[in-house]
Amino acid sequence: MTGSFDADVVVLTSRFAPEKDGGYAVAVMSRLLAVQRAGASPPLLLTLDAGPPHDREHAAAFAIESGMPSESFTMRNLFDEALRDPRWLSASARPGEPTPGLAYRQLRDDQGTPVLSLPVINDPSGWYLSEANVVIHDGDRDLVLSGFGELYVAWLSHVAEGLRAAAGDDERQLVVICESRQVGEVLHRWRDPRVRIVHTVHNSHLASPFDRSAPLRDDGWRRWLEGMDNFDLVVWPTHAQRSEVDQRFPHRVPFASVPSAILPRPSRRAAPRRSADVVIMACRLVDQKRVDLAVRAWEEVVRLRPRARLDVYGNGPLRDRLAALIRERGLERAVRLRGHSDDVRTAMEQARAFLSTSAFEGQGLAIIEAMSAGLPVVSFDVRYGPAEIIGDGGILVAPDDVSGIARAIVALLEDDDRWEHASAHARRAAARFAPEVVGRHLLSELDAVLAVPASRLCALAEA
Known about the structure:
The protein has 18 helices and 18 strands. It is an alpha/beta fold. Helix 2 (23-37) packs across helix 17 (435-450), helix 10 crosses helix 15 (402-414) and helix 13 (365-372) crosses helix 16 (416-430). The longest helix has 21 residues, at 147-167.
């Protein structure tokens, strides 16, 4: 792409909580950084969670630590703005009452005045699709918006008009990069032709057995895939996922393959010489990551390399179960659950190899971050990501081949020439995911979308 990018960009997510959402939050942050580094006007981060403001203060600090210049990073939250100045809410609403039969959660401003009441929908998979009234308390009268979808669009329209007013251009275009499927599903209400809605993908859509014809992971994925034409562009993190969805699911919306960028995370302290026997993992302790297979592989590793150690960074609901498995296998000295760390980068610069045993991935940002530190990767060859990322920067192993994982680890621990070759290739491969490189690619795709009428509105007009 050449020249300046002549549109405003906002990145929209349901919430931005690095301590809770792990790789998802890192991917959102990487999108912001890529857009900023590529030369677009400083992007806004828009969030829709109703949690306490101090959560967002912590998240903003993470963004600055991750490389966003403090002077060009702005995070805005729907509910913070509604409680501070609800006039935009009242202007979008109409007279009405709470939906009968539902409980409501009331939000109050700093003076204790009720401002907003949100319906409590007991459906964890689809609460955001409810048409139950959201109630705005405007003095002595109540106004309503129809569901969370209308509430979200009212705020986004308010944000868009503010950006146009600041630019002095009523026709200035806006790109909304939507990161969350539960938000994307309700944006079909937004018919502004000056807006382009770009939806990103973070993870695999497939359930077990995770092959190209596998069933979808859940009903949310089914709805989202059926509604793709409500967007102007869908951005997939890998070529493979884009191709398989393109072949399997009918759609008119354009597709692009643009990976998430890695965050420039320098070590917080000088890393000593690499250990010849330490391998690390960095992941949430959840079923998808299958850390139990890594533990089982380590039984075979230590038979061949008794001093080999596996350090697992990350927390999650399976921690106690994994700790019990480690004790059961007598591996307490060889496998350590290190918990959350703000400085995994130093561990990557000290270790000999990185291990991934996931059943599936969206892209595998931790793999790329490890490779950027010159750390060869051993990974199952699963959908999606490892095969497109690793190349000669590590070793791919057939899915579920635990013994193959052990052999690959031992090969990197024992063969210095092989390790040097893989380390050099890992650094070169990771360079493709630098924010500047990814950002230029992304902005070129957005330029193409802005050059033509909004495809989502064209699809509606022809329906």
